[in-house]
Amino acid sequence: MGTVTVGVDIGQKRDPTAIAVVELDQRTPTDDHHLARHLERLPLMTSYPDVAKRILEVARGVRERTRVAPHLYLDATGVGTPVVDVLRDAGYPGGITACYFTHGDRRTQEGSQVSIGKAWLVSRLQVLLQSQRLHLPITAEAQALARELQDYEIKIDQHANDTYGAFKVGTHDDLVTALGLAIQPKRPSARLVTW
Fold it and tell me: What is the DSSP letter of 52?
């Protein structure tokens, strides 16, 4: 089994929290495939402590299968920061990267913090899907993810600022964001832990 990471888009009132577990399958030194092993949305209004608890449950499940605690990439923009703090305070052993969404198509990393443009995230997903290097399970959540990708839009305002997401009433982009977070290009080195 390859390196496993968990991407989490944290929501609560209007958008659900979404969790994506992805395994990196490096078939050759230049041929990375990403296998989505688990996609999940939590019910709306799930409390932040319960969100943190569910993330830890998912991570424990990965560790039981792989013997390695997965690295977590969490949306820390806005409401995500308290969940990141709870997980860090709990002493999560697999590593946590707080991801902050910005405008544009760049990704920069400083220590355990990433600034990432949604344009970068979406274009990376598109490249992996079009090159058939992103493999999704056959589940209801994967079908919801496909709908989210179809609803995904780019809006540009009069000042040339771009905004990415699902803007129509009743649509979401949570699974897209969680999956995009889980397929970060640089993987931390895996370490065996007892947790």
Answer: H
